[in-house]
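Model it.
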Amino acid sequence: MNSEENLFSSPPRERSICPFFRNPCIINSNNPVEKFFKIKVEFFSKKDFTEEMILMAVPPDCVGCVEFDPTVIPIMIVQLIIAPIVIVMSTDLIIKAYKRKKLATTTLMATYVINAGIVLTPLISNLQCFFSGYCLPSYQWVEVITFVLMSLLPMFFFTCCKELFLKNTPKWIFALYLIWGVVGLVLVLLPQNNWFVTGGDQTFRQITQTDVAAYMAVTFIIAFRGSFHAASRMEKSAERTALRLIGIGAIGGIIGLVYAAIGVFVADIFGKNNIFLTLEWVCTFIALLSFYLGFSPPGWFKRRFEKE
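Modeled.
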């Protein structure tokens, strides 16, 4: 009998998932702590290999902890790509806002800082879940914090657009728009959402989430229309291109919201972390990059189009 046959004919051994690596590793079964985290891996033949579990068990003293869902990994990968880029953009805008002290730059900076929070909040929580094998009770706050930030984001973004290319917006419309944002924020914070109630009624929460999504969608539609309309009146190529990029970013934001809505509706079929939610984050990245190049283009970008 060769070594390959011995491998698959040997009796099943108890294994565990190492906390910091996703591959099985042999544990010391004499250690009572490690015994709890053991995982059985059975070898049935050369072609058949099954794992009864791929996750570490939740510690018994961790009240409110839940197992890590590996279907979130594709979303986490996209978030890992976006995170350093949005941090660099936010840092650059903070510096510019400090130097220029203009409302447009300040509100744009606030928009990107909020976007950084929207990206980093779930990413940090997902990384903790990934490396630990289970999610801490604080994971329940991710959705709440995300929607609070999402309800704030359109107010700052719209204010920035108003200062740059929506200057003819009547004050009463602008006031109503800001009131809509404040109402949306209040709705998110109401206890009727049952954010932390397992199995609670989610009707009010769905209304709140729909309101926030509609607020963002209207903001992107206004930005898309306003930026392309302003671009058509610009003579300089650099300014025209920057405004068009803002419009493209708005389109990316709208498509992202559509993917998010589809992902929620098909969650029962494809799972709560389906491909549509991954595509939502891809569109978010495209929107953030386009907005940055449009609102605050780097020097090399300006010189590139000024030559045309």
